[in-house]
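Hi U.,

Before I forget, here's the chain from the pilot set. I'm dumping it here mostly so it's searchable later in email.
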Amino acid sequence: MSVKSILIVGVGGQGTLLASKLMGSALVSTGRDVKVSEVHGMSQRGGSVITYVRYGDKVDSPIINEGQADVILSFELLEAARYLPYLKKGGVIITNTQKIDPMPVITGAAVYPEEIENKIKEKGAKIIAVDALSMAENVGSAKAVNVVLLGVASSYMDISEEDWLTTIREGVPAKFTDLNLAAFKAGRSVNQ
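Structure:
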């Protein structure tokens, strides 16, 4: 299989790192060569968090350059727009519709851009925008946004649902297993 590249982007505290860990584990369980690289930046202060996930028969580098991502999984709408140049032609952006004001917006130095989804579409990108926050709250916790988004992304990866569910059971603390399984299934139902 050729190498596939998934760029996971979000804001510190949204659970992007757990999502990348679960995705990497699910991919490893299928016997593929997997490389994961995280860039934390100012994540503790609400800054961008980026994770590169690449998998296939043989992956030489974890880094995804502009124009190489098959999928961009964005936990926040502005982050989807920010990393659009990384999407390859024919790729897909899966984004949470949640908006988290960056520091320039909080301080009044900038305004949160409007109609981001439409602007992404105008650039020719396929976008799947979901209210993952509401979906997570519906299954029991806003903190499950990351696993809802994994569920949506799972439809674009050739990993069986059972492999995903096993990875979640093994990768989250037991007291949160049922919540995360429900969150994953809610996200997975989006594309079915």
